């Protein structure tokens, strides 16, 4: 589940409004290491979609769907580099129920259709290169085609 929401976060882009004037350290300038002043009432946008594909955070294989990266300590220090449900005091209250429901649905689907496979003639695109619909949410532009037995 973590690898799926890493590559395809439901809320790919978000904005926060500063409640007070502050500085964001080490994010600006041509070298990306200068502080930026954010005034009270000013919006700061961020893209979890792009953050989750960073090779600096996830390694050279960041573009690959590799669920096993979450089964070791490889990402124990990922911190805010992984925030599909955002983080801190504004973390999505539905995070745990979303993971529970998704896990249950996948398990039941596999139980009901143990022969679940991709169609034989289906061309598989590498992660991130398939047709996507990137609006308020990320979704497959072509749907999900599978063969059920």
Characterization of this structure:
The chain has 149 residues and is an alpha+beta fold. The chain is built from four helices and six strands; from the N terminus they run αββββαααββ. The mean pLDDT is 89. 21% of the residues lie in helices and 19% in strands. The radius of gyration is 18 Å and the shape is elongated. The chain starts with a helix and ends in a 9-residue tail after the last strand. The strands form three sheets. It has a two-stranded antiparallel ribbon with strand order 1-4.
Helix share bin: 10-25%
- What share of the residues does DSSP label as strand, in percent? 15-25%
The count of strands amounts to 6
List low-confidence stretches. none
- In the sheet with the most strands, the strands line up as 1-4
Q: Give the N-terminus to C-terminus distance in angstroms.
A: 24 Å
Counting helices, strands and paired strands, the structural category is alpha+beta
Shape: elongated
What is the H-and-E element order? HEEEEHHHEE
**Overall mean pLDDT:** 89
Instruction: List the total number of helices.
Output: 4
Cα-based radius of gyration, to the nearest Å: 18 Å
Sheet with most strands? 2 strands, antiparallel
